[in-house]
Amino acid sequence: MNQETNTDVVTEIRGGKRSGWDHNDEFAHIDRSKPKFGQIYELFIQFCENTSLRGVPRIVRASDRRKRLLWLNFVTIFFISCIACLIMITNQYLQYDVIHQAKRIFDAPRAFPSLTICNLRPFKSSDVDRLIRQGAVPVQAYFDAIMRVASTLEKRYASQFTTLLSLESYLLNLPEGMESSNLGHRLEQLVQTCVVLYQNGTSIRGTNCRKAGHWVKTLDRIYHNCYTYEVDPQIRAQTLSVEMVLYLDNIVEHTNCFDCQVKDCCNR
């Protein structure tokens, strides 16, 4: 007797769940006997009536055809305008480069004897020719343009704007297609010969710098590529001198100094 009662209760509960689901079905009023196209059309009308898109429900609920066409035109115009604005914003975003804040990097102290070589002219003559062909402005002209803009700003903003007065900032704003890593003097071009003289007992010996130590490349905020030479610890105490022959690559073909930097520009 108890088993039959429990079975009836479970059956009623399950039946109640099915009936509740059928009652709460959002699409229960759709005529399933219609063709698929008719059912899809009814679903589309139901979506338009309940959507939160502005103006779309008014198209479906309009009392006559004239109002329906009026709302349809409004919604279409606003939709096309929205797409046009998105395209304009995307084009503006892709058109302008992102300006990165220049940072100054300090190198760790070097053990003596060591020396650092920097060319006062950051770019090679071939680099200058390439920059001119790409339409890049001279370094000093870039600094002058920043100072002109900074002079029109308030003092609190101008002090931040003048942080762009560095070669690092100039290299971050090169013309499209140019990389700062491809500019500057190379070690093999700058240092023609290098000899380390060291004491070996009672005699003085000389050896190539690459055999007696190693080079470390650093990026200077003014001179770009710099190279530091460090002598190996085994002969550091016996080192007497380091002799080098350097190629400065003076630009004699150009009448103006493309990569010159006036230090007083930052203190105007």
From TrEMBL:
<keyword id="KW-0915">Sodium</keyword>
<keyword id="KW-0406">Ion transport</keyword>
<dbReference type="GO" id="GO:0015280">
    <property type="term" value="F:ligand-gated sodium channel activity"/>
</dbReference>
<feature type="transmembrane region" description="Helical">
    <location>
        <begin position="69"/>
        <end position="89"/>
    </location>
</feature>
<protein>
    <submittedName>
        <fullName>Amiloride-sensitive sodium channel</fullName>
    </submittedName>
</protein>
<keyword id="KW-0407">Ion channel</keyword>
<keyword id="KW-0472">Membrane</keyword>
<comment type="similarity">
    <text>Belongs to the amiloride-sensitive sodium channel (TC 1.A.6) family.</text>
</comment>
<keyword id="KW-0894">Sodium channel</keyword>
<dbReference type="Pfam" id="PF00858">
    <property type="entry name" value="ASC"/>
</dbReference>
<keyword id="KW-0739">Sodium transport</keyword>
<keyword id="KW-1133">Transmembrane helix</keyword>
<dbReference type="GO" id="GO:0005886">
    <property type="term" value="C:plasma membrane"/>
</dbReference>
<dbReference type="InterPro" id="IPR001873">
    <property type="entry name" value="ENaC"/>
</dbReference>
<keyword id="KW-0812">Transmembrane</keyword>
<keyword id="KW-0813">Transport</keyword>
